[in-house]
C-alpha cells in the first residue's frame, strides 16, 4: 500500500514538473505599427506570421492581419514598421533565458519590466509614459539615463519618477502570469535587432518553475519507487 502511495506522489510530481516547464521556441515576427512616432511606446504592435498554437495557445488568433500589442525591451537597437525577424520567444516561466539579451537577472528583470509595461496610460505621447519606458529599460540593465536616440524625447526623463516606478514594479512581481508573458528576441537581420515583451492571454495560466516542495516530493517518490523495485528483485 505504501509503495502505491509513494508511486502516486512521484508520478504527480513528475506531471507537475512537466506542466510547469517552459522552453524558448522559434517564431517569425513582423513589427506592424509604431503609432504616430517612434516614441509612442504604448502603441507598438506586431504579429507572428505562423502563429504556432502548440506554443502560443489554442486560443491565439491567427491570420496575416492579426496583430497584438508589444512593449519595447531594448533601448539600444532600432525597429521600423514592416521589419520582419526570426525570433526566439521565451516565456517568463522558462528556466532557460540564454536566448534573451539580458539573461543576467532573469526572470526577475523581465518580470519587473512586464509589470511596468502595464502602467502605461492611454495611447498618447506623455512624460508619464516615457518615464515608464525608461524604467523598463533601466530594470533590464540598459544605460541610465538612456542614451539619446533619434525621435525620443529624452527631456522627459526624470530620475525621481523612474525610481518611483521601479519601486512600484516590485509589487507587480506576484501579479505577472509568468507563462503568459513572453520575451520576443530578434535574431540579427541586416545588422538590426530588437527585443519586445508580449502578454499572450491565450496561453494557459501556469505557475513558474517547480517549487522546492514539489522537487522534494519528486525526490521522495523516486527513492521510494527505487526501493520498491529493489525489494521485488530480492524476492
Which helices and strands appear, and what pairs or packs with what?
Elements: H1 2-20, E1 25-34, E2 44-48, H2 53-56, E3 68-69, E4 71-72, E5 84-91, H3 108-117, H4 127-139, H5 159-169, E6 181-186, E7 195-199, H6 212-234
Helix pairs in contact: 1-6, 3-4, 3-5, 4-5
Anisotropy-based shape? globular
Structurally, the number of domains stands at 1
Tell me the series of helices and strands, N- to C-terminal.
Answer: HEEHEEEHHHEEH
Helix proportion:
25-40%
Please give the largest β-sheet: 7 strands, antiparallel
SS-derived structural category = alpha+beta
Radius of gyration: 21 Å
Parts with pLDDT < 50 across at least 5 consecutive residues: 5-21, 207-223
Mean pLDDT score, rounded? 78
Strand ordering within the main sheet: 3-2-1-5-6-7-4
Distance between the termini: 17 Å
State the total count of DSSP E strands: 7
Report the total helices. Answer: 6
Q: Strand-residue fraction?
A: 15-25%
Amino acid at each position: 500500500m505504501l509503495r502505491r502511495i509513494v508511486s502516486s506522489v512521484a508520478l504527480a510530481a513528475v506531471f507537475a514538473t512537466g506542466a510547469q516547464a517552459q522552453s524558448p521556441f522559434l517564431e517569425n515576427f513582423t513589427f506592424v505599427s509604431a503609432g504616430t512616432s517612434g516614441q509612442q511606446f504604448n502603441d507598438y504592435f506586431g504579429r507572428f506570421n505562423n502563429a504556432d498554437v502548440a506554443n502560443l495557445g489554442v486560443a491565439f488568433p491567427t491570420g496575416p492581419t492579426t496583430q497584438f500589442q508589444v512593449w519595447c525591451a531594448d533601448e539600444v537597437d532600432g525597429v521600423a514598421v514592416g521589419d520582419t525577424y526570426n525570433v526566439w520567444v521565451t516565456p517568463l516561466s522558462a528556466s532557460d533565458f540564454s536566448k534573451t539579451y539580458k539573461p543576467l537577472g532573469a526572470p526577475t528583470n523581465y518580470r519587473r519590466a512586464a509589470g511596468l509595461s502595464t502602467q502605461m496610460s492611454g495611447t498618447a505621447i506623455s512624460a508619464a509614459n516615457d518615464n515608464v519606458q525608461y524604467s523598463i529599460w533601466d530594470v533590464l540593465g540598459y544605460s541610465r539615463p538612456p542614451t539619446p536616440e533619434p525621435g525620443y524625447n529624452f527631456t522627459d526623463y526624470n530620475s525621481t519618477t523612474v525610481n518611483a516606478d521601479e519601486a512600484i514594479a516590485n509589487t507587480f512581481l506576484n501579479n505577472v502570469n509568468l507563462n503568459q508573458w513572453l520575451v520576443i528576441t530578434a535574431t540579427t537581420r541586416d545588422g538590426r535587432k530588437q527585443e519586445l515583451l508580449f502578454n499572450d492571454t491565450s496561453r494557459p495560466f501556469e505557475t513558474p518553475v517547480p517549487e522546492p516542495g514539489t522537487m522534494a516530493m519528486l525526490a521522495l517518490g523516486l527513492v521510494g519507487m527505487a526501493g520498491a523495485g529493489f525489494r521485488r528483485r530480492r524476492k
